[in-house]
Specification:
Oligomer: heterodimer
Distance between the termini of chain A: 79 Å
Helix content of chain B: 40-55%
Number of helices of chain B: 4
Order of helices and strands of chain B: EEEHEHEHEH
Radius of gyration of chain B: 13 Å
Radius of gyration of chain A: 31 Å
Largest interface: A-B, 16 and 16 residues
Strand order of the largest sheet of chain A: 1-2
Distance between the termini of chain B: 20 Å
Chain lengths: 407, 127
């Protein structure tokens, strides 16, 4: 089971699992309380020694070798975890007349291996393979660990003022994992790691207590971790709808409320690669689409057409022809907003007005909703095109300034 | 080395005039330990051995039930019989190792090792 190329740091633990436990069974040995305590201490020392050795060894390897070194050890830990099944299902129950204690010894070894796996994942995340398949006994241990703490976690969330429905939605994946020991799409290390990480973050929020806006803190946490359960998505949309109802019949205010959520959603940093359920779309995308649909609905159906006052000498329906595409025009308006050149608060109204008075070079629809939608569609080519137009403007002003003898 | 006693659980040999070698083998029971323990005490007393190299390298499994006997009865009896230095080579088996650690008295007479040669070198320079 050892790895030939690199220093194998797990040899002592492997000897215990493969040789010593086998002899224990063969000799029909039994454990007692103090042996268990000493065994736990010894395992703790050995695990610390492995961690130190890994920390020491890795500095001698090049970057590509480090990845292999870490992943070989990661696989070795998983192999040893599977090997423990040779001695029955690891079980924290104390020894009895019918139980020599071998399952208890296996249990403590499993805990030690889990500790090492977490260490490798945390310390060497760059080289860790998060899609590693996990054996059932490891999952059982993780599930048991989570299960014992769920009630406390639930009560603690309620105690800091989280409403019951929200607390239930947050803890639902934990309950599900604790019962079925799997999530919806098989179980890899990254998935169990997600729940462990979320639990730690929830504990931090709980520790901070009911200070500040706990609900907002939790939403930021869940959005940042891409907590993409259907129940949470529904909860969020329901919450936004309630906020919309508070400003009922006031379309501008409703647009403001939606824009506020849209802005918030875009400003929450999402942890790269994080997902509660990797088989489902990202929470950010789902909420962004939902908000956009709401914005467009209000704009298209609830707001009347903008009437342009007739100007003497100007033909009705006259439009200013812009040498820009609709996307470039939208971005141009966005830039004017962001730089303070346009002072209007109601972005929606401005974009709809722009749709009436400007005509882009292409045959795209100039519906207000389309212009507004394009406000959020930015890419490098659009930026470059708008930049080129602005640079051209500045070059003209510079040349004009030179000709008129200005500064 | 001159063989002095052999049983399924232990081989006892003379290394030098004052160094006795006790090589414990396999799983140990309370009976095997008390029987072999009594034999060692007798050999130490009769042979004027002041130094013992107690080798557990081939011991397998726990023998924790005999720890109180070893610590409270056997070691005092060995010292009464003339023991001055005791080099104890622990087993690579974790259960035997933990049992031995529990049974090791804290004094200047006993020192633990994981290597036979190191243990012998330590004993060799002792008076």
């Amino acid at each position: 089971m050892s790895t030939p190329k690199f220093k194998y740091e797990l040899q002592e633990l492997e000897n215990i699992i493969v040789i010593d436990l086998a002899t224990f069974v063969e000799d029909e040995s039994r454990v007692d309380d103090w042996l268990i305590d000493d065994f736990k201490d010894a395992l703790r020392r050995k695990v610390e020694k492995v961690k130190m050795s890994m920390q020491h060894s890795i500095i001698y390897y090049k970057d590509d070798e480090r990845e292999t070194y870490i992943q070989e050890h990661q696989q070795a830990i998983i192999r040893l975890t599977v090997y423990l099944n040779t001695y029955g299902v690891p079980n924290p129950a104390p020894p009895s007349i019918n139980n020599s204690g071998i399952e208890l010894l296996s249990h403590y070894l499993l805990v030690a291996l889990e500790d090492l796996l977490s260490y490798v994942e945390t310390r060497y995340a760059k080289y860790f393979d998060p899609d590693t398949w996990l054996p059932q006994n490891y999952l059982s241990l993780t599930a048991a660990g989570l299960h014992t703490e769920l009630d406390n976690l639930h009560l603690s969330l309620l105690a800091i003022g989280v409403e019951r429905e929200f607390a239930n939605i947050i803890l639902q994946p934990f309950w599900k994992f604790a019962v079925t020991q799997s999530m919806s799409t098989g179980t890899t290390y990254s998935q169990t790691s997600y729940l462990k990480h979320l639990k730690l973050e929830l504990e931090k929020v709980i520790k901070a207590g009911a200070t500040g806006n706990v609900s907002k803190t939790l939403h930021t946490l869940l959005n940042g971790l891409n907590f993409n359960s259907p129940e949470y998505f529904t909860y969020c949309t329901k919450f936004i709808q309630q906020e919309l109802k508070k400003v009922d019949d006031n379309d501008s205010d409703q647009l403001y409320v939606l824009s506020r959520f849209y802005k918030y959603l875009h400003q929450v940093p999402v942890q790269l690669g994080a997902a509660l359920d990797t088989s489902r779309p990202a929470l950010f995308g789902l909420l962004a689409d939902w908000l956009r649909a709401e914005l467009e609905y209000i704009e298209m159906n609830n707001l009347g057409p903008i009437t342009v006052p007739s100007v003497q000498g100007v033909t009705a329906g006259f439009k200013i022809l812009m040498a820009m595409t609709i996307t470039q025009l939208s971005y141009f308006i966005h830039v004017l907003f962001q730089t303070g050149a346009i002072l209007n608060k109601n972005k929606s109204m401005v974009t709809r007005f722009a749709a009436v008075i400007f005509q882009p070079t292409t045959q795209e629809s100039m519906a207000g909703s389309n212009v507004r939608k394009k406000l959020y569609e930015k890419n490098d080519s659009v930026r470059q095109a708008v930049r080129a137009i602005l640079v051209k403007c500045i070059a003209y002003i510079d040349a004009d300034t030179g000709e008129s003898g200005g500064c | 080395m001159e063989p002095l006693h052999t049983s399924p659980s232990i081989e006892i040999k003379r290394i030098t005039n004052h160094i006795l070698y006790c090589n414990w083998v396999g799983p140990q029971t309370p009976e095997s330990i008390t029987t072999a323990g009594a034999t060692i005490i007798q050999i130490v007393k009769e042979g004027d051995f002041r130094k013992v190299l107690n080798d557990n390298a081939r011991v397998t499994g726990p023998w924790n039930t005999s720890v109180p006997y070893t610590l409270n009865q056997w070691f005092p009896a060995m010292m009464d019989s003339g023991l001055k230095h005791f080099a104890w080579v622990y087993s690579p088996n974790i259960f035997a190792d933990l049992s031995a650690r529990r049974a090791t008295p804290i004094n200047n007479i006993v020192k633990s090792f994981y290597d036979y040669n190191e243990a012998l070198s330590w004993l060799a320079v002792k008076p």
